[in-house]
Amino acid sequence: MTTLPDLRHHGDAEVRGAAAGLTDLAVNVRTGTPPAWLKARIAASLDGLAAYPDGTAARAAVAARHGLPPSRVLLTAGAAEAFVLLARAVRATRPVVVHPQFTEPEAALRDAGHEVHRVLLSEEDGFRLAPEAVPEDADLVVIGNPTNPTSALHPAETVAALARPGRTLVVDEAFMDAVPGEAESLASRTDLPGLVVLRSLTKTWGLAGLRIGYVLAGPELIEALERVQPLWPVSSPALTAAEACCEPAALAEAEAAAARTAADRAHLIARLGEFPQVTVVQPAEGPFVLIRLPDAAGVRERLRQLGFAARRGDTFPGLGADWLRLAVRDRDTTDRFVTALAKAF
Length: 345
Hints:
By secondary structure, the chain is an alpha/beta fold. Helix content is 34%, strand content 15%. The chain has a seven-stranded mixed β-sheet, with helices on both faces.
């Protein structure tokens, strides 16, 4: 019997407890966040905690941000909740998850009793999507863009080619706001049958502990997801954050952060190129890079002893023991990491 990877292992496990003091390259949350202005907005919302949450304004803000009506928006307790709702609400007979990618969609589907089929993308072509690899009879397809952990950004039209009547196409765009110009996003598309786009506000804005994300989909599916969602699932502070992060000044700040991330990623890739034993998956477009190296588990453990936490790759279907994922950090942190990596080798 084939042993499943640990689908519930995530990067935060690398920096818990005694490891909390490590320099964190395992979690893809932007450092130095949330910004002071956002913390102030969230703090001001605490005066209203006696009232039940009302998501009307936040929902309208998210809708306006993507040029959509509010009926196409559902606010969730992080994008991860959306996977659970979809697994419960969508009646799929042949769900397919395109791997390697974030493992929570498959875990949620399995927990809901679905038999999950996998499409494994290949290192040989940079883990790029070939639409014909997805079975024609798949009635639920899940894919990340840009994909965690490969950092591959699939062309919008390549992903759109997976849409068809009778199929729910779920595109996890949790890291799309870290891509300059949000190139290749499908978030504002309403012409594709069965399209569902998931977004997270926790990565760029440092709100992983607050839990806020949203679903963009047709009104009928949004209603179906609401029916399986608990009452008041998103807290008032999280709703305040959602509204604030959709304002023009916040969008401009996110775009500037995406440009800095792109420059810092180029520096990280260049420094990794100093090690002939390290292979970097390229082109990389997310706020992280995936690398293959010999004895990755041993190197990862030695890096921990040297003060750095990296994300193991063997819990992602389609990868193995030779893979690590590294979050993009500022240049000084990268230079310190490269010094530690040389010692770890």
